[in-house]
Amino acid sequence: MSGKDDIFRYDQMVEHALRNVVKSALKEAIKNGLTDEHHFYITFHTKHKGVEIPDHLRDRYPNEMTIVLQHQFYDLEIHDKNFSVMLSFNNVPERLFIPLDAITIFADPSVNFALQFQPLGAMEDIESDDDTESLDLGGKGVEKEEMGQVISLDSFRDKKGNDD
Known about the structure:
By secondary structure, the chain is an alpha+beta fold. It contains two helices and ten strands. Strands 2-1-6-7-10 form a five-stranded mixed sheet, with helices on one face. The chain starts with 9 loop residues before the first helix and ends in a 12-residue tail after the last strand. The C terminus is likely disordered.
């Protein structure tokens, strides 16, 4: 058996495990706050099922949006499959609901840590356009701040050979 009929979908297992890293980091932020220089960049698909953001943000970021959790965020809540947070946009507080499956990039630049997620299964209905508005992490930099290596799940997929 191989492909979609394979019961051992390691790609999905790894994807799920890495999304749990995001969940754990958010739980830690709720429990202890963001200490030292820790802060999170979270990029997500705005068209993903379950994303709830104000219409003016969806109009401005029709495909992807990046939020920063650092100093001014409130009421961060993590649930089994999503999280919510209160952020200010033009001094107006807004609550965002974001499914963990909608996240495409999670980064903590203070420790040069980043994860990049590939869409699996539930993401198939997302339309892709070239006019996405988000941080460009391709060059490992965010506004000239060194981000470190972005880990792509592609490096784990279709790996052939042995490292013995």
